[in-house]
Amino acid sequence: MANVIKLRKGLNINLKGKAARQKFSSGKCAQYALVPDDFVGMTPKVVVREGDTVKVGDALFVNKKQTDVKFASPVSGVVSAVVRGDRRKVLRVVVDADKEQQYVDFGQKQVASLDGDAVVKALLDAGLFGYINQLPYAVSTTPDQKPRAIFVSALRDMPLAGDFEFELEGNERDFQTGLSALAKVAKTYLGIGAQQTSAALTGAKDVEVTVFDGACPAGNVGVQVNNIAPVNKGEVVWTVDPTAVIFFGRLFNTGKVDLRRLVAVAGSEINEPAYTEALVGQPISSLVEGKLAKTEHVRLINGNPLTGRKCTTADYVGGHTSEITAIPEGDDVDEMLGWILPRTNDFSVSRSYFSWLFGKKKEYSLDARVKGGERHMIMSGEYDKVLPMDIYGEYLIKAIIAGDIDRMEQLGIYEVAPEDFALAEFVDSSKLELQHIVRQGLDMLRKENA
Amino acid sequence: MNFLRKYLNNVKPNFEPEGKLHAFRSLFDGFETFLFVPNQTSKTGVNIHDAIDSKRIMSFVVIALLPALLFGMYNVGFQNYKAAGALADASFFSMFLYGALQVLPKIIVSYVVGLGIEFAWAQWKGEEIQEGFLVSGIIIPLIIPIGCPLWALAIAVAFAVVIGKEIFGGTGMNIFNVALITRAFLFFSYPTKMSGDAVWVANDTIFGLGNTLPDTFTCATPLGEIAQGVASNASLADMVFGFIPGSIGETSVIAIAIGAVILLWTGIASWRTMFSVFVGGAVTAYIFEALGMTHIAWYEHLVLGGFCFGAVFMATDPVTSARTQCGQYWYGAIIGVVAVIVRVMNPGYPEGMMLAILFMNMFAPLIDYCVVQKNISKRMKRLTNK
């Protein structure tokens, strides 16, 4: 029987437009692009030129600081553009896809016979290693420091997030192979939700399964790490997206890089929200074509509404994108005297609104308005209610704002990722940009400790 | 409401940096966000936000204060008619109207002076107007005696807003509760206008309402009488309902309890703080009663004076109270203890709530420091035990 950890803090936001467990086809596209920004904290060095021919699995760019960390092309074809932005920052590397895909053969491997170093080498060679993130700093990791442990969270519980159990159907063998491979590197923990019943999760081998019973953000891998064994200064733990585990498993089972994943296309502005199979790097336009309820005053999000980035149809499915969501932008809404009206269509954890009256089943269509001005931190205890970690959130945020590095370390900044503060940012009545603040703090420390 | 929105959009350019009315930008912003929820959308971080904002929170605190305010108005009239011996002829309405006319100038002075400084400050700093003073501005008239002159009130409010709040960085950064600083300023600068026997009952007529009382008329609060060693003749029912002389909003336990329910139900005030103030006060008063050091029963300490008002509306101010959950228990309990100690053991001050809360405002960061330090020590220990 797996360990069960009950989390009492948290909040489920019930948004309209959840993806039905059905698949629609998003077809094949002419162009795909890999975006370096999807691999947080990594400075890319492009290793292809326009006009080069690449196969699936050939590196498009590498980590400049550690060049053995490559990033594989999701498709085969001709590199048509290396798009750069301000100060020559690489925005994306675009590949015109071949009709018939050519794969680099990395050779099938029996994971059981490999050791940890061989697993890491195989992932590095295939350009998949960069899909592993790490704590501290919540960035794409490098192989120079051996991890203390590896954490995989199979629970996606952010609002409108794609259901991993649905994605897992048909990929159970690859998922298990991926887990077994990671377990060769370090002790691996798999965190699952109390409602998840798939045998591939509950009965996963070679890993320690922990059931997290609680509201969002119980699925955040950072929250899970904090509740199992918090990160100490000087340590590194790897955190791996469950879909990336499937990518790893496919590599060992087939010898090929195969970056197909299931993406939920959801939200109140999407007609018939459902799942589609997409490749990493696929244009978002192909996923939402004909599905957007409106074309104006709509916010398209690469990810879920809490942690995702605002995007357009010209952007691409990211390396860690499990859902594309669309919500009303709200910039055309003029709401009079909202600070005193009942606002029954709006959601709030505060009982000064009436969300508590409608129960947990009512679905809300929230727009992207901030709904208030930014203030100093006034109310106390707001963050604590939605942060199931042994961390004093308010004090950590204040230490970051003050730029006090010693205090940040003392208050546990190594244990957090910006996404852990997403719900706190949602409920914050002072409307502070908490995820942005945490990211700044993490970057500050990373620079300091480099 | 479209015409209003259109009108605001039309005049808005005048308030932009190059516009001719730029000097009133903060005023315009304040007015615009008061009328319409800002439709500015999120740029980074979460794409959706909870509907709560500080305007909503402050408005609800003001709503929670209304029962105490309305009862206070009535009680001002009641005390005047009672002192004149004219209770039998007075209608409820005339007593309330008289009280309202007596209290209203104080509310107006408090808001005009306080908000005026806030607006000017926001304009100067190029910031948005912060809503904190909406609450302070209504609390201030409620915690002073009806006899406090308006000029003194104006000076005290100006002092509290500038020295107590703005120089620290505005709402959310202040160390002491702004309303209490106002009261403390009045209390120590103009003691004859704030305490004694002559300030608790309104003594003149307004628009023909009320009664003129002789200059020699005096009436002490029950706590004042007790401090002088005189037994108060107020019944427990009067103390709970609030038909006793005292600061305008502090007398009625029932009106304050309605406010407390609103604050606790909406989750705006911390129940931990509120609860522990009462526990701290009750335990201390009980001990003093058992030792024979106080003439009144322990529960009378809780219903008399500003104890309830302070516990419900001032100790729970999130900015100046302890922020950690564990700290809030300590913070509240010590307020209760200190308030009763001052009442019983200090012959100079019949009421101790103001001093207790200000005192603990000062120590709230220290309490939090200890609580947070425990978390830090645990983390450091983990590191060394590795």
Automatic annotation (TrEMBL), chain A:
Keywords: Ion transport, NAD, Sodium, Sodium transport, Translocase, Transport, Ubiquinone
Domain annotation NqrA N-terminal barrel-sandwich hybrid: ranges: 5-98
GO biological process: sodium ion transport
Catalytic activity reported: a ubiquinone + n Na(+)(in) + NADH + H(+) = a ubiquinol + n Na(+)(out) + NAD(+)
Na(+)-translocating NADH-quinone reductase subunit A C-terminal domain location: 263-312
Coiled coil: none
Pfam families: NQRA_2nd (PF24836), NQRA_N (PF05896), NQRA_SLBB (PF11973)
NqrA second alpha/beta domain mapped to chain residues: 115-257
InterPro entries the UniProt entry points to: NqrA, NQRA_2nd, NqrA_C_domain, NQRA_N
Enzyme class: translocase
Keyword Nucleotide-binding: no
EC number: 7.2.1.1
GO molecular function term, any single one: oxidoreductase activity, acting on NAD(P)H, quinone or similar compound as acceptor
Function: NQR complex catalyzes the reduction of ubiquinone-1 to ubiquinol by two successive reactions, coupled with the transport of Na(+) ions from the cytoplasm to the periplasm. NqrA to NqrE are probably involved in the second step, the conversion of ubisemiquinone to ubiquinol.
Similarity comment text for this entry: Belongs to the NqrA family.
Cited HAMAP family: NqrA
Oligomer status and interactors: Composed of six subunits; NqrA, NqrB, NqrC, NqrD, NqrE and NqrF.
Protein name per UniProt: Na(+)-translocating NADH-quinone reductase subunit A
Species assigned in the record: Leyella stercorea DSM 18206
From TrEMBL, chain B:
Keyword Zinc-finger set for record: no
Main subcellular location of this protein, as a coarse class: membrane
Residues annotated as transmembrane: 57-77, 138-163, 175-192, 243-266, 273-292, 298-316, 328-346, 352-372
Modified residues annotated as FMN phosphoryl threonine in this record: T221
Catalysed reactions, as listed in the record: a ubiquinone + n Na(+)(in) + NADH + H(+) = a ubiquinol + n Na(+)(out) + NAD(+)
MF-aspect GO terms: FMN binding; oxidoreductase activity, acting on NAD(P)H, quinone or similar compound as acceptor
Keyword Translocase attributed: yes
Enzyme Commission identifier(s): 7.2.1.1
Highest taxon of the lineage: Bacteria
GO annotation terms (biological process): respiratory electron transport chain; sodium ion transport; transmembrane transport
Key words of the record: Cell inner membrane, Cell membrane, Flavoprotein, FMN, Ion transport, Membrane, NAD, Phosphoprotein, Sodium, Sodium transport, Translocase, Transmembrane, Transmembrane helix, Transport, Ubiquinone
Localization, UniProt: Cell membrane
Enzyme type, top EC level: translocase
Cofactor requirements of the protein: FMN
Topology versus the membrane: Multi-pass membrane protein
GO CC terms, sorted: plasma membrane
Function (record text): NQR complex catalyzes the reduction of ubiquinone-1 to ubiquinol by two successive reactions, coupled with the transport of Na(+) ions from the cytoplasm to the periplasm. NqrA to NqrE are probably involved in the second step, the conversion of ubisemiquinone to ubiquinol.
Subunit structure, interactors included: Composed of six subunits; NqrA, NqrB, NqrC, NqrD, NqrE and NqrF.
HAMAP family registered for this protein in UniProt: NqrB
Family: Belongs to the NqrB/RnfD family.
Protein name in the entry: Na(+)-translocating NADH-quinone reductase subunit B
